TrEMBL record, chain A:
Its EC number is 2.7.13.3. GO terms for biological process: chemotaxis. Residues 559-690 form the CheW-like domain. GO terms for cellular component: cytoplasm. This is Chemotaxis protein CheA. One of its GO terms (molecular function) is ATP binding. Keywords: ATP-binding, Chemotaxis, Kinase, Nucleotide-binding, Phosphoprotein, Transferase, Two-component regulatory system. It is an enzyme of class 2 (transferase).
UniProtKB/TrEMBL annotation, chain B:
SUPFAM superfamilies: CheW-like. It comes from Paenibacillus etheri. GO terms for cellular component: cytosol. The lineage of its organism: Bacteria, Bacillati, Bacillota, Bacilli, Bacillales. One of its GO terms (biological process) is signal transduction. Transmembrane segments: none annotated. This is Chemotaxis protein CheW. InterPro entries: CheW, CheW-like_dom_sf, CheW-lke_dom. SMART domains: CheW. Residues 4-145 form the CheW-like domain.
Length: 690, 153
């Protein structure tokens, strides 16, 4: 069978499982006694193993298998979780992750995991000897089981066989619900729920989906793996109300073998089941004996089946295409609006206005489609902070809030690294060592808050810790020493300005270079990355109390509101988000200070930049005019006035890049297509403020 | 016997040049170009080609040949090389011919004022016609432009 079509599905699902494994492990570490978490972990690991095995990634499967062995002991109370086990399991997860990554890159997912495997095996051997003798306890070989209508495929067969070998009970359970029962599906669900609490349903007939949809008579049957005996299970199920009859039969190796032989020769039986399925079409997918569909029958999938997922996976390229098509529509809309206003036909204007509203809604939806919760970036941080804290011998609580806040995918893709850097900083430089914290009268455990929230057209991500804080004097001293600023400059700097120095290239306040951070490739990289996304970083810090790095990001990168301006025959767009004010100044109000033109604005003097001169516009020069239109733009606290000829108006514009061929041009951040089909350049106001 | 290739033929002055047809996306009439400030003089600006912003360079300027006024015959050839899309302004473009790779000879050092590194070779077609094949990746090599600029500056 061609596996390629399943590969991307496999990769997606593996990543999901790995993520949930990571999360559950963190949860378990915080709460080592909670065996229900172990169950969740076990199921995820088990599903992963099954998927890997069917896809032929043997290393992956065997490593997960070893993990499962350890987890199995834990969930059966035969082994208590402890640091060593956690570390080994985390290491295994890392190894699994790198294997899946390798597969993603087109590799074979092979890796040398022998050391991890042997330590996993040591855990299994060292603590508690593997349970062996219980297998023989299995009850009477059951003739009924062999007559079962359920057709097991090879994989399910081997699962049963293996669990019998490992000393679990493999049961064949037949449940009949009372005739007068009103909600058969609910009862059935309760049975499944009950069973899944103490074991695993390997296969059921009819399929779980059919049972949920009440597509069964009064009875259904299933194969089940558990630690409990057949009698116990029978009694458990009978305890539920409206259950008519339950037969649970334990299988042993022999009866299983009979089953296996039967299923091998039972081609006709398959055909028979197939006809049964035809009467219930929905069943076909789940019951077809395709090995890759196995996970659909596993408990994990069966559980989610109870509340069918309302999401679909879409190739991101399709979304990009959708976005591009929509941008073209937007350009046409602007053009239509222009034409309608020229023609002055009432009906036309009305239609165009309506189209405008619809396309506005459409724009919202298209933009929302591209929004991804920041959780996709945040979810790896708890694990990272845990490892860091451990390696630095610190105690740290990471509190994540607002992980559901959504950001454009393009921003999400880029924001990971800067955040990792800031978090590492917070853990390494921010939070003090345990001894220092006690000496300072703070609780032993440091707290790092990772917050995301909306505010206006921006999303803020804050990283706040209750550590040492930043001492402006220290920063200034270090900056002078490194030659970033002169002594003279230092003495005139405010605290905020001093904090900004942390972002200067080649600046790192760490006195000792540690493994974690402080390699000198510091915050300047973070800053430039965030600026390139149109964002901003601000530092708030109280010495001795802690530091807050606040990252401001635009909601989206592809459609923005902008002010269109004219310079001679040329048109430019200025992002509305950075405009503070527009106005007119008389030539007499322009002063020259140190050869630079300045104007008075809100009681201070700000520089006046001549765009026409900067861009060498051929057919316009504002110096010949008596009055000049200005646009005041802002970057952080600083303001600059840009001299323009005319304001054309405000517009939604679609950002396009200038193509790979053009080198970066200072002052220009991209281009957009106007309603008349012409290209206008987008001005990057940040470039004028240094 | 080497394979036959299809070649788009265009003119700069009296010389004829060729670009393999696979590398050419479309040939357009002149259209409004938005000037891009603070860049090389041979980059004339950007155009809107059906919703995509594409930079346009004057091939004469790129090769250091004197630039001329655009005429009715002037065309923009949109090429796509190394995932870059760029438009070339040329004096005219009106021919597609079949060419055998064997008929392309290594170029002499300078042909029509263009350095040999920009050329793939020279092909003789018919009696008196010489076709100069362009090496597009070299023509669009930005590293080389930077050197050029620093020499000028």
């Amino acid at each position: 069978m061609d596996m390629n079509q399943y590969l991307s599905m496999f990769i997606d699902e593996s990543n999901d499982h790995l993520q949930s494994l990571n999360e559950s492990m963190m949860g378990l570490e915080a709460n080592p006694e909670d065996l229900s978490i172990v169950q969740v972990i076990f199921r995820s690991a088990h599903t992963l193993k099954g998927m890997a095995a069917t896809m032929g990634f043997e290393d992956l499967a065997s490593l997960t298998h070893q993990m499962e062995n350890v987890l199995d002991l834990v969930r059966n109370n035969k082994l208590r979780m402890q640091d060593f086990i956690f570390d080994t399991l985390f290491k295994s997860l890392d190894a699994l992750e790198s294997m899946v990554e390798d597969i993603t890159r087109g590799g074979e997912g092979k890796a040398d995991v022998s050391s991890i495997v042997s330590s996993l095996q040591a855990i299994v051997r060292g603590e508690i000897p593997v349970e062996g003798g219980a297998a023989s306890v299995a009850a009477t070989p059951a003739a009924q089981a062999a007559e079962t209508p359920i057709h097991l495929d090879e994989f399910q067969f081997s699962v049963l066989e293996q669990s019998i070998q490992e000393g679990h009970h493999a049961l064949y359970v037949d449940v009949t619900i009372r005739k007068d029962c009103q909600l058969k599906a609910v009862r059935a669900y309760m049975v499944f729920d009950l069973l899944e609490r103490s074991g695993e349903v390997v296969k059921s007939f009819p399929s779980v989906q059919d049972i949920e949809q009440e597509k069964f008579d009064q009875s259904f049957s299933l194969y089940y793996i558990t630690q409990k005996t057949a009698d116990q299970i029978q009694a458990m199920i009978m305890n539920l109300s409206e259950i008519d009859k339950v037969t649970a039969v334990a299988l042993d190796q022999e009866s299983l073998k009979m089953l296996g032989q039967e299923s091998a020769s039972a081609v006709s039986e398959v055909a028979a089941t197939a006809t049964v399925e035809e009467t219930a079409p929905a069943a076909s997918v789940a019951s077809k004996p395709l090995p890759t569909k196995d996970e659909a029958n596993k408990p994990g999938a069966a559980k989610t089946g109870a509340a069918p997922s309302r999401t679909i996976r879409v190739d991101i390229e399709r979304l990009d295409v959708l976005m591009n098509l929509f941008s073209e529509l937007l350009i046409d809309r602007v053009r239509l609006e222009q034409l309608a206003s020229e023609v002055q036909n009432g009906d036309l204007t009305e239609t165009v206005e309506h189209m405008g509203r619809v396309s506005g809604d459409l724009q919202n939806i298209v933009m929302k489609l591209r929004m991804v919760p920041v959780d996709t970036v945040f979810n790896r941080f708890p694990r990272m902070v845990r490892d860091l804290a451990k390696s630095l011998d610190k105690k740290i609580d990471l509190i994540v809030t607002g992980a559901e806040t959504e950001l454009d995918r393009t921003v999400i893709d880029e924001i990971g690294d800067p955040l990792v850097h800031l978090l590492r900083n917070a853990v390494d430089h921010g939070i003090e060592s345990i001894a220092d914290r006690i000496a300072a009268g703070k609780p032993e455990t440091g707290t790092v808050h990772l917050r995301a929230f909306h505010s206006g057209n921006h999303v803020f991500i804050e990283i706040e810790e209750d550590g040492t804080g930043i001492y402006p004097e220290k920063v200034l001293k270090s900056a002078v020493k490194k030659g970033v600023i002169t002594q003279e400059q230092a003495s005139n700097m405010t605290d905020d300005e001093a904090f900004q120095l942390l972002f200067a290239p080649g600046f790192s306040t760490a006195e000792v270079i540690s493994d974690v951070s402080g390699r000198g490739v510091g915050l300047d990289v973070v800053k430039s990355k965030i600026s390139s996304l149109g964002g901003n970083v601000t530092i708030y810090s109280a010495p001795g109390k802690g530091t807050n790095f606040s990252v401001q990001l635009p909601l989206t990168l592809s459609i923005i509101a902008a002010m269109l301006i004219r310079l001679g025959s040329e048109k430019y767009a200025i992002p509305l988000s950075s405009i503070v004010e527009t106005g007119i100044v008389k030539n007499t109000q322009i002063r020259t200070i140190h050869g630079n033109k300045m104007i008075e604005f809100r009681n201070s003097h700000i520089p006046l930049v001549s765009l026409s001169r900067l861009f060498s516009v051929p057919d316009y020069d504002e110096s010949t005019e008596e009055e000049t239109e200005i646009v005041v733009v802002r970057k952080g606290e600083r303001l600059v006035a840009l001299a323009v000829q005319d304001f054309i108006g405000q517009n939604e514009i679609v950002i396009k890049n200038l193509g790979k061929y053009l080198p970066e041009i200072q002052g220009i951040s991209g281009a957009t297509i106007l309603g008349d089909g012409q290209v206008a350049l987008i001005i990057d106001p940040n470039a004028f403020i240094k | 016997m080497a394979e036959d290739i299809k070649v788009i033929v265009f003119k700069l002055g009296s010389e004829e040049y060729g670009i393999e047809v696979e590398k050419v996306q479309t040939i357009e009439r002149m259209m409004p170009i938005t000037r891009v400030p603070k860049t090389y003089s041979f980059i004339k600006g950007v155009i809107n080609l059906r919703g995509v912003v594409i930079p346009v360079i004057d091939l004469r300027g790129r090769f250091g040949i004197e630039e001329v006024e655009q005429t009715d015959q002037s065309r923009v050839i949109i090429v796509s090389v190394n995932e870059m899309e760029v438009g070339f302004i040329v004096d005219s473009a009106n021919d597609v011919i079949d060419l055998n790779r064997d008929s392309i000879d290594t170029p002499p050092d300078v042909v029509g004022g263009i350095k040999a590194k920009y050329l793939d070779g020279v092909a003789k077609i018919g009696e008196e016609r010489l076709l100069i094949m362009l090496n597009l990746s070299e023509v669009l090599n930005k590293g080389e432009i930077v050197q050029l600029e620093s020499l000028e500056g």
